[in-house]
């Protein structure tokens, strides 16, 4: 089953939309920061590298095959400011598995925006995406990210110790996941996911 959502997706505070060429400066604003790159496979990006990344993201708006990605810009409705990005990757068609991720400008962290945006991606994955299980991963040292996974109702499934060399040192990684039935239960009246 292919997934091609109608955009934008959103809440009262946020719009999740496909990237455009006009987003390069906003993306460069946070992807150039060491604080952002610290837990990513990338180093801080130049403006030219951000332009290439945005160009790739422009077409990443649907899922057809394994490892296809939906990567969306997260924009504040009130100001139109691009504050980050969220992703949904199709990891297995047969087993109906996906993976979510996020990158946010540090200026906008601590306001619940990442939780809201990630919840929209889970709703997409488990609703029209008909996924059975969605996972997320982060470095053990990236406490804000794994705390976000817990706010989303995900459970820690793995702690990989010194499993890979990452930026010249041994890496430790957490894997979190949530199943369709857990997501569905959290969407029932009287059940809430923390924001």
Can you put this structure into words, describing what you see?
It contains 6 helices and 8 strands, in the order ββαααβββαβαββα. The protein is α+β, with helices and mostly antiparallel strands. It has one domain (9-186): Gcn5-related N-acetyltransferase (GNAT) (Aminopeptidase, 3-Layer(aba) Sandwich), CATH 3.40.630.30. Strands 1-2-3-4-5-6-8-7 form an 8-stranded mixed beta sheet, sandwiched between helices. Helix 1 packs across helix 3 (47-58). The two termini are 31 Å apart. The mean pLDDT is 93.
Primary descriptors:
single chain; 195 residues; Aminopeptidase; globular
Topology order in helix (H) and strand (E) letters: EEHHHEEEHEHEEH
Q: What's the name of the CATH homologous superfamily? A: Gcn5-related N-acetyltransferase (GNAT)
Which oligomeric state applies? single chain
Which overall shape is indicated by the principal axes computed on the Cα atoms? Answer: globular
Number of domain units: 1
Provide the CATH top-level class.
Alpha Beta
Number of strands: 8
The secondary structure category is alpha+beta
The radius of gyration over CA amounts to 16 Å
Assess the beta-strand content as a share of residues: 25-35%
CATH topology: Aminopeptidase
Distance between the termini: 31 Å
The CATH architecture term is 3-Layer(aba) Sandwich
The largest sheet is: 8 strands, mixed
Strand arrangement, largest sheet?
Answer: 1-2-3-4-5-6-8-7
User: Can you count the helices?
Assistant: 6
